[in-house]
Structures are given as C-alpha cells and as structure tokens.
C-alpha cells in the first residue's frame, strides 16, 4: 500500500501560534499482512502483520529480501523483475553416501546365507524360510533365463497377492530382468494395453487370459515347481546399477497409462537410506498390503527381505478392510506397516487399533498428512509416525520427516541420501524460504524416464541448471521451505490428483469418458467432502434425456481401474463459466446433486440405523432405502468406514464384502437381520426328565 497523502514538512515550520505537538494514529486493514510505503524525502516502509499468522523470523526475512531487491533495482534499474529473485533456496541432501557395488539379488542371497532357516514370508497358512524362498525363486529364474530373459528384458507379472508374487519378483531380478506388475482385477482392455505397450513376451500368472498377446505364459500354480525342476543355484547375470529394475504404469493425461522405468541405482539408494534411518532387524515383521502395482510395495518386499525380517502378506483386498488389518497386526505381531493417510484415518476408527501394541513404526505417504490425523494417531497408537514423500519417477520416496506431537504442521521433510530438492520459480531460479514454487528433484533416485515416450521424458526430466550434465525431475507439486529446512507441501500446479493414495490424471478419465457416443462434453473434478474423503465427480452434457450414469459407470469399468471411476455423474445443460469465459470449476464443485426418484423412507429400526450411518459418512441428506451406495458416491475406502460403523452399531462381525453384495439400505438391512438371527443363541432345550415325577409303589 503506497501512501498518497504525505504530510508536507513545511507545515510544521509555520509561524502561527497554533501548533500540534504530537500526532499518533493506528491503522489496520482486514488483511493478515500489510506493507505501508510512504514517500517523502526518504522512502519509509512499515509492515503490519498478525502474529498468529507470521513469526518474527518470517517478517525479518521478508524485510531483508525486500531490502536486497530494492538495492538491486537501484544498482541496475533495467533488470526485469524475475531477474531479481533472491537465490537463497536450499538444495542440499542429508548426505552424499556412496552406493554399494553389490546389487539387489546378491544382497538378498547374502541374507539367505545369514538366516537360511528364518521365516522369510508368510501368507495366511503358508510360509517359506529364506532358503526355501531362494530355491523357488532360483527355479523360476533359470526357467526365465532359458527363455532369454536378461538385463533390460521386461517381464510381466499378473498375480493376486500371494507367495508367488514374491517368488516371481525375485526370480526376474535374479536374471537381470525388470518386472512389470499388472493387477489381475484391471479391465481386460487395460491389461492388454500394458502387455502390448511394454512389448511383454513372457507373463508370470496363475490364470488364463483369452486372446492374450503374450507369447509365453508361465502359470505359477502349486504344481509348477514339481513340473519344472530347474536348477536352484543362484544365477549370475551381467547386471549393472544402471539397468532397469521395474516399470510401473501410472495414470496418463492422454487417456492411456504411461510406464516409469526405474533403475537398480535409484532403488538401492532408497533402500540403503531406509535401513540406515529405521534399522530393520530379523526380529521385525513387516506387513505387505500395498498393491504391487504401486511403488510403496517395492520397499515392503525388498527392504524386508534384504535385512532378514519377516514379510507378512495380507490377503487379496485385505488392504481395504481395516478390521482385518487390525486383527492381522495383532495376531502376527507386526512391527512395521505403511498407510496412505486416508486409510490411516479409517484404521484409527477401528476399536482394535489401540490394541496394536507390537507396532514400532508406521510410515505414511501418498497423500498429505494432516495435523489432526497425526494427533489422532499419537492418541491411539504408541509408535513412531513417519511422513514420506516421493513420486514414482524418483524411486519411491525422496524426503522424509519423523512426526512430533508439538509441531504446528506436518512437512514432507528433508531430502534423503544422495537426493537434491529445489524449490524453483518459472525461470528455474531458486526461491527463498517461505516462498511457494515448484518442486524439482535431482540425484541418484531419478528414474530413467517413460517407456517409449522420449518427448514426455524430455518434458519432465530437464537439464539441471545447477549441475552440468545432471537432470532434474519436474514434480508439478507446489511446495515451500520452512525455516528449519523442511519442505512443506502446498498443492498441485495441474490436474493431477490423489484418490486414496492413487495418482490420477483427470484428463485421462475425461478422455475416456468423452469416447462414449452419448457424451457431448464432460469435466471430471476431485472434491474433498471431509479430511481423507476425496471423491471424483463427473459433470456431463449428454444427448439423452434419461439418466445414463449406470451405463457410463459400466463403460469406464471396462477401460480403467475402479479407483478411476467417478463416484457421481451430474448431468448439466451447460457448464458455468467465469467472466472471462473459462470453465468455473468452483461453481461446479458448489453444485448440489441429488436423486430425482421417489424417496422411500426406512420401514424398521435396522434400515433407520443404516440410513443414519450413510447420511453421516456419505454427506448426503435425502436418502431412499433403494439408493445404491456406490451411486451415491461410495467407494472402497468409504465402504470400510461404513462397515466399521455397522459392526459397532449392530455388534456383528460383518464381512466387508457384504456392502458390495448388498449395496442398498433395504438389501443390506435384510442381510444384517438374517445374520443377527443366525448368531442368536438357540433357546435352551427343555429337559424332559425334569417334567417327570417318580412315584414309589
């Protein structure tokens, strides 16, 4: 604010008898920060600020930066404003650590020699020792080697969570190949796209695929290891740190997913840091519950097995069932587990969560971790909580923070070993502490790039202006440095969102949805209904007069995973626009949507109780007992929360699948009533002998 009413000093020099000895005034605006500039003979700058929003250090730093910029303007008035940026950003890692020459397969084999008889992996009632796991992996590895698998060969895996997943991953790595995980629940169209895009000729699976484009299918069923008695000695491939190790497919804005190629160097750097930071031992038990198509699963598998701990694998879809997870953690004495923050919130609502006393450390990543959730965690669980951050393009995680109960925020932390983080403006200049900019990453963790997409790789992996010959990855994340050097996450600069920890490009969903013949126009947005409850909403213009939501849901379900299907489809005659003609997304998100059909009220106590739970969690007021849970905006995560409340309300051990099988209030109430009748104790049978009277003759 530049004052345009300065007082003329000559007024004070008047000879009149009337004088003013002192003038004091207080002036405040409604803004948290105001800079007052007054120009007389000297330039006067005054800052007024709200103490609860800014610290004294913030203001001192702002004044120093402002003074430096003004000095530069005086020294060279012809400079453009963007050239005056204060280059005082921090780009240091926590330490430059030499990466060992040993590669991941050899490190695992050394661990096998140390603890051959220790249990390496448990899945339900099955288990394998380190020696047994190594032998089975070697059997498959030699089979793959005979088929021509070598370094840089991409090998597909399409398996449900099981022991065979661990065997398959190790086998591929042992012969130098890179694994490409494919979720068997994906639509067949997406599976075929991945197989063709990655040019996969060998697929490890345990099911048949009609019209599969893969040349060789290896079925890892129980009898495989008897049918293929290959060598069980350790293979010795010619492998280097710069060879690829896995290719993970992530959402792409064009309508098709894209594969990120990571290397042994990047992953080894990440795992070495993790072991130094958290010191896993053979006494630890790590829960493997992340779907293996996401990179968190990589450290769950390999960090555990490289350090002699026991890997406990959750049942398929078990990662969505908070009650099951709590019981499994207690029964298996789990010490280490990962949660996406939105799932952690659901998990903490479980009654048994506070009984998970074996937990030493909980690791969060994939979404922003709120202060409220952090506080609730420490109130419920007596364990260490770590907040990690990293994109798939940089070997899982690049920054880390150990949460403290008294911190005012939850930053994404400091960079890990051999990683550099840069907060830059649009001109790739370092920004000062407290100023928001885009996060760029450098160092050993960077991925090689995107498979078969050189243009996209060049766009996102750019030359490092601070180190000749090095690269930086543009994350698209907006962050800022805190005073203590920690990095704080602020938001995104594009349409990429996280839904239940899964990275999604809204453009991909829009591109596929627009292929439907009845869609004239569509917009997909993400809306947060409550902390940890973010849902996809599709706004559509159609050529039909009737509701086609179910048809669209089925159309998308044949092409993209379930987590990419919008919770609700809202039909509009036209989209709201801003004054300058652009799409008004705020107006779209503010729209209320409700069903136009007749509302049927609850008919009994069970239906009433269910409806109240749905209203509270789904944030929907007008409900009918024949409304479909998933059409109202429900998803697997919300289903977990609803199921937890239903179990508490009805004192029932209700399977999570019940809500998927009975998705209306009426059908769900009927199922609950049947279960309640089946678990009620039977009436005590009458002892007929007590009704007899003996008469002595």
TrEMBL record:
Cofactor names: pantetheine 4'-phosphate
Keyword NADP attached: no
One cellular component (GO) term of this entry: cytoplasm
CDD domains, per database record: A_NRPS
Signal peptide start-end: none
GO MF annotation terms: phosphopantetheine binding
Keyword Membrane carried by entry: no
UniProt name for this protein: Non-ribosomal peptide synthetase modules,pyoverdine
Organism: Crocosphaera watsonii WH 0005
């Amino acid at each position: 604010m530049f004052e345009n009413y300065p007082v003329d000093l000559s007024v004070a020099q008047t000879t009149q008898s009337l004088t003013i000895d002192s003038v004091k005034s207080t002036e405040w605006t409604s803004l948290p920060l105001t800079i007052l500039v007054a120009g007389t003979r000297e330039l006067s700058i005054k800052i007024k600020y709200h103490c609860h929003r800014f610290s004294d250090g913030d203001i001192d730093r702002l004044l120093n930066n402002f003074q430096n910029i003004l000095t530069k303007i005086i020294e060279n008035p012809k400079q453009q404003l963007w050239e005056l940026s204060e280059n005082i950003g921090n780009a240091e890692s926590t330490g430059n650590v030499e990466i060992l020459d040993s590669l991941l397969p050899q490190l695992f084999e050394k661990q096998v020699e140390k603890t051959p008889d220790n249990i390496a992996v448990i899945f339900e009632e099955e288990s394998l020792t380190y020696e047994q796991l190594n032998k089975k992996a070697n059997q498959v590895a030699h089979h793959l080697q005979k088929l021509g698998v070598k370094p840089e060969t991409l090998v597909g895996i399409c398996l449900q969570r099981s022991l065979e997943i661990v065997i398959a991953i190790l086998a591929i790595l042992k012969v130098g190949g890179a694994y490409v995980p494919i979720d068997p629940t994906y639509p067949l169209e997406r599976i075929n796209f991945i197989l063709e895009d990655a040019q996969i000729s060998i697929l490890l699976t345990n099911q048949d695929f009609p019209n599969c484009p893969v040349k060789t299918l290896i079925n890892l069923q129980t009898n495989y290891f008897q049918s293929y008695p290959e060598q069980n000695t350790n293979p010795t491939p010619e492998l280097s740190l710069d060879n690829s190790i896995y290719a993970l497919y992530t959402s792409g804005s064009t309508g098709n997913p894209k594969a990120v190629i990571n290397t042994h160097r990047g992953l080894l750097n990440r795992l070495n840091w993790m072991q130094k930071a958290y010191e896993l031992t053979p006494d630890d038990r790590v829960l493997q519950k992340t779907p293996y198509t996401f990179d968190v699963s990589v450290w769950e598998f390999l960090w555990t097995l490289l350090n002699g701990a026991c890997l406990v694998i959750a049942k398929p879809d078990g990662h969505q069932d908070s009650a099951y997870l709590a019981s499994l953690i207690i029964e298996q004495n789990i010490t280490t587990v990962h949660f996406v923050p939105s799932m952690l919130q659901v998990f903490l609502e479980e009654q048994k969560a506070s009984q998970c006393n074996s937990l030493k450390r909980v690791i969060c990543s994939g979404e922003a971790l709120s202060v409220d959730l952090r506080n609730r965690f420490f109130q419920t669980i007596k364990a260490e909580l770590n907040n990690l951050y990293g994109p798939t393009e940089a070997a899982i995680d690049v920054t880390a923070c150990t949460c403290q109960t008294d911190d005012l925020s939850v930053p994404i932390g400091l960079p890990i070993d051999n990683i550099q983080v840069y907060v830059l403006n649009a001109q790739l200049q370092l920004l000062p502490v407290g100023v928001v900019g885009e996060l760029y990453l450098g160092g050993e963790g960077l991925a090689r790039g995107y498979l078969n997409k050189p243009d996209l790789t060049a766009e996102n992996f750019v030359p490092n202006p601070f180190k000749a010959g090095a690269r930086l990855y543009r994350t698209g994340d907006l962050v800022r440095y805190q005073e203590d050097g920690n990095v704080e996450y602020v938001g995104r600069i594009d349409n990429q969102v996280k839904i239940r920890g899964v990275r999604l490009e809204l453009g991909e969903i829009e591109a596929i949805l627009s292929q439907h013949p009845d869609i004239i126009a569509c917009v997909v947005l993400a809306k947060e209904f409550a902390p940890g409850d973010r849902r996809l909403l599709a706004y559509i213009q159609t050529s039909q007069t009737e509701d086609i939501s179910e048809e669209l849901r089925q159309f998308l379900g044949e092409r993209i995973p379930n987590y990419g299907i919008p919770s609700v489809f809202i039909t509009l005659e036209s989209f709201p626009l801003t004054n300058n003609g652009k799409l008004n997304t705020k107006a779209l998100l503010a729209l209320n949507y409700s069903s136009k059909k007749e509302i049927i009220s609850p008919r009994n106590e069970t239906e009433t109780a269910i409806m109240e739970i749905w209203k509270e969690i789904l944030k929907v007021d007008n409900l009918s007992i024949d409304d479909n849970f998933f059409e109202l905006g429900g998803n697997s995560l919300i289903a977990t929360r609803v199921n937890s409340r239903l179990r508490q309300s009805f004192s029932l051990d209700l399977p999570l699948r019940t809500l998927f099988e009975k998705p209306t209030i009426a059908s769900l109430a009927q199922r609950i009533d049947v279960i309640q009748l089946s678990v009620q104790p039977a009436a005590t049978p009458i002892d007929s002998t007590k009704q007899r009277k003996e008469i002595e003759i």
